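Sample pair:
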Amino acid sequence: MPITGSCHCGRLAFRIEGEIPAALTRCTCTFCAKRGALLAYYPPQQFSVTQDAGDAVYRWHTKLVAHHFCRDCGVATWSDSPDFGRDGSWDGHTRRIGVNARLFDGWDAERAKVEVIDGRHLW
């Protein structure tokens, strides 16, 4: 069953052809710590934007990660990033989509198991 979700105002919506992972990810890098998202990761081919009426993108530091958010309500929606390994390594081409699982329709991310990535020291 596909996963659907949207930002607070509904101007950005998405669909994921996949399952909710057994554990979500909380990254401790300076950006993610301030943003507060709990991330579910998917290959790009499983993720699609179904409504885009106000998308904005923020890139910082290496510019390798595109953090998407709604221009109207400001909610962090997803990030397109290198598929970094737990040690910070990357093969130079494989990407992944980190979706803010707090936005999934009909599901409470607060009850999910969460793994922490030490992003503050990896990149």
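Strands lie at 3-6, 12-16, 23-27, 39-42, 47-52, 55-58, 66-70, 76-82, 95-100, 113-117.
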